[in-house]
Amino acid sequence: MRYGVLKLAVLGGIIVMSACGGGGGGTSMPTSPSNAMTITILRQNGAQSFSPNPALAGGQMVVFKNTDSITHRVTLNDANVDTGDIAPGATSRAVQMPSNGTNYHCAIHSDMIGAVNASSGAAPPPSEGVYCGGGY
How many domains does one find in the chain? Predict the structure, then answer.
């Protein structure tokens, strides 16, 4: 009898651990909020690399969906956000965009540039530095 109860307790623990993701061992991105805006990574093509560009996403949560056939890594020009590598077909974790807008680029392909408008709808801030080839 005791053996049967112990067996059920162990089995129950295994079920609970696997339901909570405790037995996975693999790496996974945190889930993204369902209300996050998606910016699509199209290809390595300057200011035409992301869509929409500029994005009306100031102050919002954003995910980057890589529809290209190569890996990309989105970084805000001020380095406050870095998505990490985004494999082909993958989506980044959700990141918070600054309310006053921002400029960003692909850290792997520096000619890929994008911008986010301010939450008020105003244009993004002027881009400064080496990642400023698209007039943003």
Answer: 1
